[in-house]
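User: I'm new to structure prediction. If I give you an amino acid sequence, what do you actually give back? Let's try with this one:
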Amino acid sequence: MTFSDESYNLRIELDTKGCELSAEEIEDMELDLHTLRNLVADFPVSDLHITVVHHQKARDYHVKTSLTLSGKTLFTGERHSKVHPAFESCIRKLTKKVRAYKRQMRVGEDAEKHAAGTRHDVAPLGELDVQAIVQAVQEDDYHRFRQEMDVFESSLASRISHWIERYPEIGSRLEHPFQVSDIVEEVFLNAFDAFDQRSHDISPGQWLESLIDPSVQALLQSPDEEYERIQFARMALMD
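Assistant: Good question. You get back a string of structure tokens that encode the predicted 3D arrangement of the chain. For your 239 residues, that looks like this:
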């Protein structure tokens, strides 16, 4: 069975051995692919091959996936007494591998841009008061956190603009007429929520930059909820 999802540029092939999947089971599997579809949307090539094998003696299912992207093929496999749990586990692992591969690609591209002098780093345009930021998070005070992080706004907006230029397909799929300033606010909101889990091995600017991709993905997956959160945060900042 072969089917394509042109809106996400993902071609899918499904093979079964020793079993037949119901329409309901296939529909459930398609729903599990939502995050993966978003992640591979900007690749010119994204072919997913799914194999489901039923082992009668072991009374279980072996699900295998191979995802071919530009310059890379990723593999996962999982066994379970039921098809859906095995497939879910495969796709979770595959999603992690895609994210890791995209990070690896960005590192290589960023190194080239640094060498060419075309890299736009996220950096503060003023003095950064780390202690004040930490205290704001501890007191659950987003208003103060946002004020202290304002030194990054211009640089972050510039980086997001270049990010969207690099992935125009993703920008065109945002349901709301999101502006760069909306994505900037989404990044700051996610930074506030994840501040305690931040990496201390990279600079604050690099950490903010690492939140751009997941912030855009959140806007793609839950546009109404995220847009409402952005607007609520802005109203709070105006008080």
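You can read the tokens as a compact description of the fold. Here is one thing that stands out. Confidence is low (pLDDT under 50) at residues 2-7, 114-119.
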